[in-house]
Amino acid sequence: MAFLAFPEGFQWGVATAAYQIEGAVREDGRGVTIWDTFVRQPGRVQNGDTGDVACDHYHRYREDIELMASLGIQTYRFSLAWSRIYPFGRGAVNEQGLAFYDRLIDALLEKNIQPAITLYHWDLPQALQDLGGWMNRETTDAFAAYAKTAFNRFGDRVTRWITLNEPIVFTEMGHRTGVMAPGIRDLGAYARAIHHALLAHGKAVRVFREGGYRGEIGITNANTYYEPADDSPETAAAVERARDFDTRLFHGPVFGRGYPATVVKHFAERGVPLPIEPGDMEVIATPTDFLGVNLYSRGLIQPANNSVGFTYAPPRLPLLPMGYEAAPHALGAFVRWVSREYDRPRIYITENGVCDNTEPDASGVIDDTTRQELLRGFLAGLHGAIADGCDVRGYYQWSLMDNFEWAFGYSKRFGIVYTDYRTLARIPKKSAELYAEIIRRNGVEV
Ligand code: BGC
User: Fold this and answer.
1) Roughly how many angstroms between the first and final C-alpha of the chain, as a whole number?
2) Which atom of ligand 1 is nearest to the CA of 169?
3) How far does CA 167 lie from the centroid of its chain?
4) pLDDT of the residue at 402
């Protein structure tokens, strides 16, 4: 066994998102979101599950904060439900929504837990969707106005802001494959959503800079660490295409490199060009303070005769219940890659975690060994990347507790705390004990 110590001041946190945990979807003036609509469409979500109650965090947030405090959590990343603040996405502000997040933030600070806010974690107000949602350029202004309201109200106490969570997921899965809200399947819709999401990010960063708010702001992307299935030059080229169509598509514009030429061509050739207007790329490239990295797995890539020129090769590592590989090396490897590619940005791992559906044993103990093993592995890799000079300042485990896993409903458990969906009791798993020890020692035993 070796002990890997993390740098002094490294921050340890947990992450959640509003629709996945809050419940209380009709309370205190909250407006309807695209997920409220989507979950009610037959066949969209496994078992017909909805986020109507979820973990009932809206009413139990104090208990959840106690739980975090008992584990030694130092920072908590959560998202604001846009429709609690603007029930219709824009127009009249709902004071009760703002007041809920005031209470949450104050309760966190009382326990010395630093809040980190995600402005958008996929729950677009339905009223904006009715006008075209992310396909409509006007959504970018609505987002900037909402961001400004949030900065004004919470900026005295919150100093870490994330504009968007994983734009590739809500644009592609929401608009091209349609497996997530709003459930559209259209390449042109996808192209428009991509550009408008990034533009909304850039506009919010501008508002933050112009308002002179304290603290730091960045974007969180979803990442897969792409690796070649063999050593051939064709496969190496396919890996680069995978990076273009996923990683560079969202990082490139933010870091001032523009969209990858391969992707621009792909959309243009199909008659659905990215709807770029003069000045947009400058807005999107407004400098950020950090990069949020979410990573769960790797992708083994091989060339393919399809529209993008690559595909996944058959997996070689054990599979997790989500269908992707258990690949703990991917976190450190991706961080090294992204640091090299974009000149060593400040990084927070805004999400990393494991789907492990272990249930309580006869004595009520939840010994989620896969999660514990992979947590050590992910952190060992991250430690190596930091030792090599990558500027990683903190790590958020996804998630504090089992919650609504989007189209999978409640069938996939990502929490270090078990949620009993019948009683809504929270029961810390063995991985929560391990994480508490990692935090206490600021390092991991491997
Ligand atoms: C998302 C979370 C999700 C997690 C686990 C990330 O893509 O940001 O909302 O629950 O992965 O699948």
Assistant:
1) 5
2) 7
3) 9
4) 99
Answer whether 172 contacts ligand 1 (Cβ < 6 A): no
DSSP 282-324: HHHTSPPSEEEEEEEEEEEEEE-SSSSSEEEPPP-SPBPTTSS
Among protein residues, the one whose CA lies closest to atom 3 of ligand 1: 405
Entry pTM: 0.98
Of residues 240, 58, 57, 207, the one with CA closest to residue 141: 207
- Predicted local confidence at residue 180, as pLDDT: 98
Any idea what DSSP says for residue 51?
S
Whether 64 lines ligand 1, by a CB cut-off of 6 Å, is no
Q: Which residues are catalytic?
A: 166, 351
Q: Is the CB of 402 under 6 A from ligand 1?
A: no
Determine which residue's CA is closest to atom 7 belonging to ligand 1. Answer: 222
Helices (H), 132-186: 138-154, 167-168, 174-175
Please report the pLDDT score of residue 163 as a whole number.
99
CA of 1 to the centre of ligand 1 (A): 31
pLDDT of residue 72: 99
pLDDT in tens, 129-144: 999 999 999 999 999 9
17 lines ligand 1 (CB under 6 A): yes
Give the model's pLDDT for residue 416.
99
pLDDT of residue 101: 99
CB 335 within 8 A of CB 221: no
In which residue are the tokens 């078990």 written? 418
- The full DSSP string for 193-249 is HHHHHHHHHHHHHHHHHHTT-SSEEEEEEEEEEEEESSS-HHHHHHHHHHHIIIIIH
- Report residue 90 as tokens: 């824009």
